[in-house]
Amino acid sequence: MGRLLRWIIILAILGTGAYFGAKTSWWSALSSHFHGGGKQPDYLTTPLRRGDLVSTISATGTIEPEDLIDVGAQVAGRITEFGRDEQGKEIDYGSQIKAGTILARIDDVTYRSGVKISEAALASAKANLERAKADLGQLKAKLNQARRDWQRAQRLGTSEALAQSSYDAYQSAFEQAEANLKVGDTAIQQAAAGVNQAEADLELARQNLSYCTIASPVDGVIIDRRVNIGQTVVASLNAPSLFLLAKDLRQVQIWVPVNEADIGQIHPDQAVAFTVAAYPNDKFQGKVGKNRLNAGMTQNVVTYTVEVETDNANSRLLPYLTADVEFETARHEGVLMVPNGALRWTPPSADGQKAGGPRGGGQGAGGPRGGGASSGEAQSQGPNGPGASKSAGRGAKGTIWVTDNRSPARPIPVTVGITDTIDTEVSGPELKEGMNVITGIRSAEMAATAPPASGASPFVPQLRRPAGGGGGGGGPR
User: Fold this and answer.
1) In this predicted model, what pLDDT tens digit does every residue of 317-371 receive, in sequence order?
2) Is the residue at 86 inside a domain?
3) What is the pTM of this model?
4) CA-CA distance, 474 to 44, in Å (whole number)?
5) How confident is the model at residue 106 (pLDDT cuts 50, 70, 90)?
6) In the chain, what percentage of residues exceed pLDDT 70?
7) Which of 366, 370, 421 is nearest to 392 (CA)?
């Protein structure tokens, strides 16, 4: 009986303790919820660290060969065959070729006939010249005869031995012979011109015949083949393009449209890093070659094309790949830096608004509205066009909040430096490496997933705080 009574007393004591413990815990939680409880907020912090920062301008461009040659046809006709490359294979995409290599042949029947016609015309013109020369000899002989007759007539004069009509006839014959000689000289000149014209026609016909054989003007590689055997090409005002050749793919360019707001920060020999989707784990290096002055318009944003030069000795970079380019505008080594969100965070407003509310300033890093963003916010305010700047706000004044987890958060004024869109350089006399910089307040969802506080009864359900009590930056929403 005494043993049973002892167990009843023990159970009564345990039950009473659990009841009052749960009641005290519940009341404390409820009081803390409605009255604040004076508890230090659960801040999300990151240490103020020192490191290297590189400020860049991002843009997207296209890889282009340095020298492109469009090989066309200057005559019309049907493609009869392709040439052979250095390995003896038929010319096709990617074929390596040398200058003078035959790329294709056009049916030359018509042009060979034209050469023969021109050759015959030249022979006829030469014969006409020889005939004109022979005629000139005859005319000269006739002129000499007429001159002698006229001279005799002049010595005799008009008399019984020479009638007036005969005298006049000799004079007329002499003058006519002189005129015929001039006609003969002109005929020779005309025949000589006919020979020259025939020679030019023959040269043109032979040239057109040579155009039936399409040869490479330079060493290079076939980027594009735009015709097939049996296809008829028609040369009119614009020569049809048959092949596109890249002179040398060991050196390529990237044509990058850069926003007009950022073009002033781009200069020749500027360091450039870029990636391509074909090699996502590799970063390639290059440098700015030149800025083109002919601006373009893209979605009402003025852009300038920048030529970036890069080495392609291993031929990994293929023409027309899309490149994500970063122009290095500044590099600072060994500087203090904080996450960009730390410059946008401010503590909850004094009127009782909860951090993370629609208007509260306690928005953490990456908050949707960024309430309470300081003047030193290092986020680009430029348009989201090609080449949007990542270094806006440099030299501005800002504020970060620090805590030692024992005293209330306190602000520290800073000067904002360059940013890489993740971290921002800050400087100021009060800054020390390792300071706990606040980026937000732990959200309700994060608090709900935390383990129960020590001393709480495991048998009593834990009170969940309402979801409005402090939307911290970086916490799940």
Assistant:
1) 999 999 999 999 988 999 999 999 999 988 876 444 444 433 334 444 333 333 3
2) yes
3) 0.60
4) 8
5) very high
6) 75
7) 421
CATH number at residue 251: 2.40.30.170
- Which residue carries 């959200």 as its tokens? 443
| Rounded Cα distance, 425 and 391, in Å | 11
Give, in order, the Cα–Cα distances in Å from 129 to each of 59, 178, 185: 71, 21, 11
- Tokens encoding 287: 């440098």
Strands of the 241-246 sheet, one edge to the other: 68-72, 241-246, 220-225, 96-97
pLDDT recorded at residue 336: 92
Residue count of the chain:
477
Tell me the helices (H) and strands (E) count for the chain, helix number first: 5, 20
At 164, list the tokens: 């007036």
Q: Which domain-ending residue is among 299, 316, 332?
A: 332
Phi, psi (deg, nearest 5) at residue 263? -65, -25
Q: Does one domain contain both 114 and 198?
A: yes
3-state secondary structure of 248: coil
> How is residue 231 written in tokens?
């296809």
Alpha helices in 62-212 (DSSP H): 109-156, 164-210
Separation between Cα atoms, residue 419 and residue 407, nearest integer Å: 30
